[in-house]
Amino acid sequence: MSANDDAAPETRLIHTRAERLGRVTVNPPVERASTVLFRTEAALYGPKPTYGRMGLTVHRELEAALCILEGARHTRLASNGLQACALGIASVVEAGGHLLFTDSAYGPTARFCEKRLKTMGVEAERFNPRIGAGIERLFRENTQAILLESPGSLTFEISDLPAIAEVAKKRGIRIVCDNTWGAGLHYQPLALGADISVQALTKYVVGHSDAFGGAVMTNELSLANKVANCSEDWGIGLAPDDAYLAIRGIRSLKTRLKAHEAAGLELARWLETRPEVASVIHPALPSHPDHALWKRDFTGANGLFAFVLKDYPAEAKKRFFEALSLFGMGFSWGGFESLIIPCDDQLTRSGTCWTRQKPGELMRVHVGLEAVSDLKADLEAGFAALNAA
After folding, report:
1. Cα distance between residue 135 and residue 348, in whole Å
2. Catalytic residue at 53?
3. Going by CATH, does the domain composed of 252-387 fall within 3.90.1150.10?
4. Which class for 111: exposed (0-12), middle (13-18), buried (19 or more C-beta within 10 A)?
5. Per residue in 36-86, pLDDT tens?
6. Is 48 a catalytic residue?
7. Which residues of the chain have pLDDT under 50?
8. Which residue out of 106, 187, 204, 244 is catalytically annotated?
9. Which of 178, 195, 290, 297 is catalytic?
């Protein structure tokens, strides 16, 4: 059973089913198998996956759901988000080529571009995430691809994907977009001109901080074949239990994102009123410099944003974190629990694109599914300790 193609995305995400043998269950079977047995030589070397690493029933169901989510025709799974980013990029560049990547990219992805690609004979160059069509000035004869992440990691700039795509396509330059923040439901890079969309399923798709996963999506068969070939060459695969947790999470994705969005906006607006806060960085707020772009290209937000704390001594900031009991200090996001981390040590910017309105530390917040009143009280306790110190 599957939903009609005219049904809303959230309906189709719930009712998509992969081809199964025998009876149909609400949830797909999890086959923990490396070896698949066949009765004939023709089947053994046939076109269908013949080894567990290539995925079985639960993987096919997750791929089908991700195609619905991203408006894609082809999906390839990876074991985590960084692997998905690396796979998407490596599929569209080759030795002697040149990659342009946003200066606001996820730190480990930026590291892959600048260090690992260099050993593969590919030069990587950063660009201002707000450059728009001006990126054309950076094109070279050997420019092969552009990597976007919108909003930017930690600093939340919105890039003008349609404008960048318009000038890139004239030169045959491929665009890869990290869509983890938009999660497919709130942002559709493929419809806006990207050639490949990637996600860290670890975040909102899984949604419960208990599994890793990544995915690479495209609408072009030729690109899908390049991604698949690169994936096979690198031996990439997703564990069946992680695939199951991702497909389980995707069924409730829209409901959870609505809750994260509402709570995140309420807390962000509250933080704008706090005397301890220099600025709040949330694309869905009118105060964000790229709010008009966000409003044009996105259909919603989530619980992840940042704020700049006013300039306080290190000991005062230490007391702030010690006073928090609900906000945990830990990496990742997208789960049911609220998190906060100081980000200055993580910033890997070129130094030309990221500026603050006032001095102070950058803080990234993920608003979970707790009561917002409790989260405000928790931060109030932290601010009280900050001021007392």
Report:
1. 20
2. yes
3. yes
4. middle
5. 888 888 888 877 777 888 888 899 999 999 999 999 999 999 999 999 999
6. no
7. 1, 357
8. 106
9. 178
